[in-house]
Amino acid sequence: MSQGRIRKMLVGDPQADRAVPPSGFTAQLTLFVSGAMAFLVVFALALSLAAGRLADRWADELARAATLRINAPADERAAQTEAVMKILRQTPGVASARALTVEEQAAMLAPWFGADVALEALPVPQLIEVIEGEPGYDATGLQLRLSAEVPGAVLDDHTRWRKPLVDAANSLRLLAMVAILLIGGAMAAMITLAANAALAANAQVIEVLRLVGAQDNYIAQAFIRRFTLRALLGSAVGVALGMVGVLLMPEASEEGGFLTGLGFQGFGWLWPLSVPPLGALVAFVATGTAARRKLKELA
Amino acid sequence: MIELDNVGYNYGGGELLTNVSVKLAPGSFHFLTGPSGAGKTTLLKLCYGALHPTSGRVRAFNMDVKGLDRDQMAMLRRRVGVVHQDCRFLDHLPLYENIALPLTVSGRDLTHEDGNLNELLKWVGLGERLDALPPELSGGERQRAALARAVILSPEVVIADEPTGNVDWEMSQRLLQLLIELNRMGKTILVASHDLSLIRMAKNHVQARVLRISNKQLQLAGADL
Questions:
Q1: Which numeric CATH code is attached to B2-220?
Q2: Residue A48 lies in domain
Q3: Is the pTM of this model over 0.90?
């Protein structure tokens, strides 16, 4: 479609517009449907973007950190820690490694045992935080070497419990995208039905227009224009309301966890703005197809 | 202009027309007559492409009507002005816009045609009724409006189906007068009518040929009218 035709369609031919009588009620329904659909799309989009962010963050943060746990009798612990640190320093791909101090470990355990527990009295394993470099280290190789040289050391690279979380977030994102596609399809179906109804209701008008020499495109244009503009207006209102709704949701916070992270961030706010033009495009294609098919049946 | 060559038409329940051959020469004036149900409207519809013959060939402006696609058919309708028996209008638009409809749908700018339109409306005697909606018009006014709409694009052929069907004698004469004037301007005219006195009157003013449908065939009626 050329630019001229698009401009012509938006500006419209007031005469062609008048040829088809105004249809009050169906017009309201089309507006409502596109508005409701756009509103839903905004939330599906928010869900999809939030799930995507979550998946990325989990994958990112957890992938670069790993924990080494040394279970050893108290008297061997320092020696084993030293041996492990030496191995880690020699391992390519390890950016840094640091044995947690007794105070740090006590702070981590405080929520379970209380603040004033005497950690020295308990057989608490020594923890070493390993930060992965770029490129990363070979986890299996490291594990094999550790088990040979320091049998008490266990490498926990978080993959085990990270994977299902990332998978869940990714499926959530996929589901949200499927929902957006379904909403778009449902909108196309409903606009097709509405356009068919409008064309059938105006069969007489179409017949008269054909008799005086109107081409199919001319007749179709009047219907396409109406439904496209209605869909554009309806989805613009729907998107605006949806965005206000997302805006009013509580800020992302540590305590709220995942749910409060729902929403748009930064350039994410631009995504919903693409919904009204897309809704109009859906209406344009749906009405055009319906009109061309129906006109062949009519006269 | 329009040429029917051995045309037959079958509605599915037997032949309505068989072996119809006729040639509408430019500038000619033809009447089509015959008992009601004989197929006058069908024959007219074959002429302007609303129906396709079941046998034979219809040619309009040297094109086979059967081979035209929908857009070409629309272009044909612009070259043939048709006054329908029931003369349908767009009931939500005032008379002025209804008569201008052929101009609008062919993409002409109405502002340049305003003078022509007003002249045409005066010619058919509807100059005062510009803003009336079609349902407010009388039978005669509707017929004249339909005629005005049929000729607004200055077609080469004007086909009228019982234009005097439900109007009084005085109005019939007026409509006939308009058709005769169109013929004098060089238009080819084909009028279906069962009103013999109207046909007789026309023959006093114009060189009209009378075609009669009887027994599914088209015959040229002689001087017996």
A1: 3.40.50.300
A2: 3-59+173-298
A3: no
